[in-house]
Amino acid sequence: MNPEVNPKAYPLADATLSKTILDLVQQASNYKQLRKGANEATKTLNRGISEFIVMAADAEPLEIILHLPLLCEDKNVPYVFVRSKQALGRACGVSRPVIATSITIKEGSQLKPQIQSTQMAIERLLV
């Protein structure tokens, strides 16, 4: 573990899983299956339309997104941290850093197989 990562940012995806997650975030963005930002992510959880939540471990202060893991656990939605809000923003197709994003449920989505395998990979981190 790199010392600069906040220990509260758990579970943290390793480099390989992060790449998979960011690729999927990018595809979800193209398929309009993505909500960007902590507030939008919170809304998808409350409405029960989130497949999983991706957060940035370098959000400053991290507390601004730490309500999300609690809500995820409450709603039984997988969640994961990636190291960089800059990289997460790029994957979301915006030039600004993004600290939280939600991949949303869509009936008959072409991304379903990738989403399911990523959910399983995230859940394996949580044991």
UniProtKB/TrEMBL annotation:
UniProt keyword list: mRNA processing, mRNA splicing, Nucleus, Ribonucleoprotein, RNA-binding, Spliceosome
Keyword Nuclease: no
Location, primary (coarse class): nucleus
Alphabetized InterPro entries for the sequence: eL8/uL1-like (IPR050257), H/ACA_rnp_Nhp2-like (IPR002415), Ribosomal_eL30-like_sf (IPR029064), Ribosomal_eL8-like_CS (IPR004037), Ribosomal_eL8/eL30/eS12/Gad45 (IPR004038), Ribosomal_eL8/Nhp2 (IPR018492)
SUPFAM superfamilies in the cross-refs: L30e-like
Keyword Oxidoreductase set for record: no
Function: Common component of the spliceosome and rRNA processing machinery. Part of the small subunit (SSU) processome, first precursor of the small eukaryotic ribosomal subunit. During the assembly of the SSU processome in the nucleolus, many ribosome biogenesis factors, an RNA chaperone and ribosomal proteins associate with the nascent pre-rRNA and work in concert to generate RNA folding, modifications, rearrangements and cleavage as well as targeted degradation of pre-ribosomal RNA by the RNA exosome. Involved in pre-mRNA splicing as component of the spliceosome. Binds to the 5'-stem-loop of U4 snRNA and thereby contributes to spliceosome assembly.
Record protein name field: NHP2-like protein 1
Organism from which the protein derives: Hucho hucho (huchen)
